[in-house]
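Long-time lurker, first post. I've been practising inverse folding by hand and with some scripts of my own, and I keep getting stuck on stretches where the structure tokens seem ambiguous. Below is the full token string for one chain I'm working on. Before anyone asks, I'm not after the true native sequence, just a reasonable design that respects the backbone. If someone could post their per-position residues I'd love to compare against what I wrote down in my notebook.
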């Protein structure tokens, strides 16, 4: 891919102007906007099925990961007419909006368009547009220092057999930041209220049975050295970082699907840090480890 100031490329029949490709967005390693676009174009075959049908919230970093960031839910001015836009209710909006016009990215052209806006991080809901209930339940494991992802792996291994006993087969990914997330199909649940209630009860149960390791409340004073089992992400209004999304860290790390063997073998946080190049290699070798979540 050219890294000139501006190039126009044909993507699926759409003429896309790609700008500032040489701009460094990850200063610590000199990772440029052109490399961000290159990563998203190459990961698209496994990423797009996880974006399809889901309203997208973008975290944009026009001046790189060390610059200002802003969350963007509404479709920005100039959104191409061929990008799907859906109007959805916005309960509890911080800007007192009754509805939001979300983009839904379902094509390579749409992904390149949104990545060109320096949308480094992609966040989605647990439900698809038009569906009455979520199709996934998530447990977001967030370590409170000095705890790390190593302790998250310990909690994940404790959660796995309990979820399986409840008929849920969990799949795990790194957050691309400090922690990790367990996902399972939520076909047995009829609403986000039901998935939230189930996740909260399970988090509370684990806090009672493993008080030295687990906390289910976000109160910071309770969290040092423990893993927050964040059940609240199952709210219909919440979003979670999408699998294969870049993260705005010092390095271009990625929210990466991992195997349960890797969870069991983790002894150091560095064991489960994956950059964009790592993830492309993993997909070439293993395919999409999160593919089972796409179908009931």
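-- Answer (accepted) --
I ran through it position by position. Result:
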């Amino acid at each position: 891919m050219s890294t000139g100031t501006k190039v126009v490329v044909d993507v699926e029949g759409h003429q896309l102007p790609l700008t500032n490709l040489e701009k460094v967005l990850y200063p610590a390693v000199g990772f440029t906007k052109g490399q961000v676009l290159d990563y998203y174009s190459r990961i698209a075959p496994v990423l797009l099925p996880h974006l399809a049908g889901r309203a997208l919230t973008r975290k944009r970093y026009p001046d790189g990961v060390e610059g200002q960031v802003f969350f963007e839910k509404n479709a920005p001015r100039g959104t191409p007419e061929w990008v799907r836009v859906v109007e959805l209710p916005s309960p509890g909006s911080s800007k007192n909006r009754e509805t939001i016009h979300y983009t839904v990215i379902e094509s390579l052209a749409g992904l390149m368009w949104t990545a060109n806006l320096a949308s480094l991080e992609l966040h989605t809901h647990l439900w698809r547009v038009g569906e009455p209930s979520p199709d996934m339940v998530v447990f977001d494991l967030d370590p409170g220092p000095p705890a790390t992802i190593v302790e998250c792996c310990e909690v994940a291994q404790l959660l796995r057999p309990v979820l399986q006993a409840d008929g849920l087969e969990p799949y795990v990914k790194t957050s691309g930041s400090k922690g990790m997330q367990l996902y399972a199909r939520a076909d047995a649940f009829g609403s986000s209220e039901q998935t939230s209630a189930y996740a909260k009860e399970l988090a509370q149960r684990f806090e009672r049975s493993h008080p030295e390791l687990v906390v289910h409340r976000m109160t910071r004073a309770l969290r040092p050295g423990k893993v927050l089992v964040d059940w609240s992400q199952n709210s219909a209004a919440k979003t979670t970082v999408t699998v294969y999304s870049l993260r705005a860290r010092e390095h271009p790390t990625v929210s990466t699907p991992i195997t349960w063997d890797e969870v069991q073998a983790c002894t150091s946080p560095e064991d489960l840090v994956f950059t964009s190049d790592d993830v492309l290699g993993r997909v070439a070798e293993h395919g999409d480890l999160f593919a089972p979540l796409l179908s009931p």
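A couple of notes from the structure itself: Helices lie at 33-51, 108-115, 149-165, 192-209, 260-265, 276-286. The chain has two domains: 6-124, 136-239+255-284. Happy to go over any region you disagree with.
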